[in-house]
Design goal:
The protein is of the alpha+beta class. It is built from three helices and five strands; from the N terminus they run E-H-E-E-E-E-H-H. Strands 1-5-4-3-2 form a five-stranded antiparallel beta sheet.
């Protein structure tokens, strides 16, 4: 199980936004999420761990906290997203929702949908 102290991490800045991600998590999903994710190679840009029923998602190179997701099984995941432009350039909630779904899919071993989500993510970014 990955822990906060396993990597360099910074707190979420005072510039943030809140949204709800509509996604139902099963008990199996929650078990996978609680295991977390430690970056094993340079290309892997994310470090993820759970603490106090929250999923913390940091950029692995900088330690910047990008997302904090309150874990629940009610189908709505309250999410805080970093909005400090020095740390994270994204400002579009819909892009954040796509990115977050891709990251959660990795954690819960549901990568099959990620090709479609990544295509949407990059198409939206171009427009």
């Amino acid at each position: 199980m990955v822990k906060k102290d396993d990597w360099k991490t910074l707190e979420i800045p005072t510039q943030f936004e809140t949204f709800f991600l509509e996604r139902t998590l099963t008990k199996k999903d929650l078990a996978y999420i609680k295991e977390g994710h430690r970056s094993e190679e340079m290309e892997d840009k994310w470090f993820m761990y759970c603490e106090d029923h929250k999923l913390f998602i940091h950029r692995s190179w900088t330690g910047y906290c990008i997302y904090i997701v309150e874990l629940s099984d009610n189908g709505k995941l309250k999410t805080i997203v970093n909005r400090d432009p020095q740390q994270y350039k994204e400002t579009d909630i819909e892009q954040d929702k796509l990115q977050l779904n891709i990251l959660i899919n990795r954690l819960v071993k549901q990568n099959g949908e990620n090709a479609r989500l990544m295509k949407l993510f990059f198409e939206r970014r171009k427009s």
